Every structure is written in structure tokens, then in C-alpha cells.
Amino acid sequence: MFTLLIQKEEDVPLDGKVVLVTGSSRGLGKEMAIQLASSGAKVVVNYFSNAEVAERVVDEIRQYGGEAVALQADVRKEEEVNALIANIKEHYGQPVDVLVNNATGPQPELSLEDVSWEDYLNQLEFFVKAPLLLVKAVMGDMKEIGYGRIVNIGSEVVELGNAHFSNYVTAKSSMVGMTRSWANELGEFGITVNMVHPGFIPVERHGTVSDDTITSYTSDMALQRMGNPKDIADTVSFLCSDQASFMTGQILTVNGGKTFGM
């Protein structure tokens, strides 16, 4: 449980901003939505299929004084993305100021013998196609306003190069070049584009994680402890704020020193 303490202007760096977090009904996305709401944002909790879980996130945010709405969309489909952005404008009466591309799907671990091009495409749909559709849908308003924040959620696997995971590693790696290219193209309009690489942080999708797995993962980590979802959400919140207004095209790895960046 978290507590929203919205009292002073300096406590609400995103006051009045509309923030869309894709795939935010659970896991890291849920924590991002909660953290951004605590910064004063009007949050859109995007979900794919489980409306009940998404509404719980909204209820939690509202219970502590935040503002949020749950909206369904498959962000891999252009017509649904366009409808989502239109619904956000209708609900809040203003366009999206901040976009966090977090949505993900199944992440099968496959050897090179077993992986197929279709497996690669499935990951590219989430991590390249969906962010592209979303940025195209929101950037017109951002350009007109002269302000925007885009944060892409990557993964430390880009730096680790995990074996038997090339479909996922390749798609997340593509986001790096995409982030930097977008940053160069959109910077003149006051729009920043950055990326966060989370480390391995167990959430619902991971189920029960054994002590041996945790020990193995943290043994060569500088901080030698697991992180938690709020560690990622805090970094995302910073990149969305004006405190990071002079940062763009950057890749921030948040994994306790498991790796040391690109």
C-alpha cells in the first residue's frame, strides 16, 4: 500500500499532466502508474484484457487522492491506439503529455534451434510496433504544445545478452536505437525521449522465485540485493518530470550494478 501526499507545488512535479502508462494494470507498470499519480499526474491505466485488475489500480490511486482512469486497448493495433488517445482526450479534456511505453506480453525462452521468425515478430510487435503507433498518435499534440515526455521501458537483457532469449533480447535492443533516433527528431519540439532498463525484479508474471535464483542473480551485483518495483517507478517518474528536462536520448539501467550501462 502507498500513500499519496499531495500538499505543496514542489511535491507534484507532474501536476495536471496527462500520463499514459501502457500495460499498467500489474507489475512494474502498476507501480509506475501509482508513482506518477503521486506526482500529481492524471494517469491513464492502460490494460489489455483484465478490466477488474486495472480498476483496482485506479481505485487505489483515487483512495489516496490521485486521479486515474482505466482504458482498454491492444497497443499493437493502430485502430485501438487511435481510439485510446481519442478516449483520453475526451475523458480529461486535454491531450497526452507523457507517454510511458511499458506494455509487454509472453516472454518465452527459446533456443536458437527452437526459435522462429514468428517468435521474433511477436516481441517486435510489443517493443517496436506498439511504441511507434503510440508516439505517432500523441506527438502531434506534443509538438503543438511544445512539450512532451516519452519513456521507453527496456531491459538489462540488452546488456547481458541472455542465451535462449534472443527473440526478447533483439526486440528490446531495437528500442535503444529507436529511442535515440526519436530523441534527435523530436528534441526541437521540446519533447524528450529516454529509456529505462530495469533489472530482474520479480512481479506477478514471475510467480514464486526461489532463494537459489535470487542468490545466483545477486552474487555478481554491486549492491548484492534485489530491487523492487518502486526503484524502477522512481526513475521513470524522474524522467517524466521537469528535473530531467535537459536529458534526452539517454538509457538508464536500474539494476543495482548488475551491469554498468551502455
Question: Please, could you describe this protein's structure?
Answer:
The protein is an alpha/beta fold and 262 residues long. It has a single domain, classed as Rossmann fold (3-Layer(aba) Sandwich), CATH 3.40.50. Helix content is 44%, strand content 15%. It contains eight helices and seven strands. Helix 4 links the parallel strand 4 and strand 5. Helix 1 crosses helix 8, helix 3 packs parallel to helix 4 (117-145) and helix 4 packs parallel to helix 6 (166-186). The two termini are 34 Å apart.
The helix-and-strand class reads alpha/beta
Q: Can you summarize the main beta sheet?
A: 7 strands, parallel
Shape-level CATH architecture = 3-Layer(aba) Sandwich
**What amount of the residues lies in strands?**
5-15%
Q: What order do the helices and strands follow?
A: EHEHEHEHEHHEHHE
Say how many strands there are. 7
CATH homologous superfamily title: NAD(P)-binding Rossmann-like Domain
Distance from N terminus to C terminus (CA atoms, Å) equals: 34 Å
- Shape from CA axes? globular
Provide key terms for this protein.
8 helices; Rossmann fold; alpha/beta
Brief summary:
The protein is α/β, with parallel strands linked by helices and 262 residues long. The protein has helices at 27-38, 51-63, 78-92, 117-145, 157-160, 166-186, 211-218, 229-240; strands at residues 18-21, 42-47, 67-72, 98-101, 148-153, 191-198, 251-254. The chain has eight helices and seven strands, in the order βαβαβαβαβααβααβ.
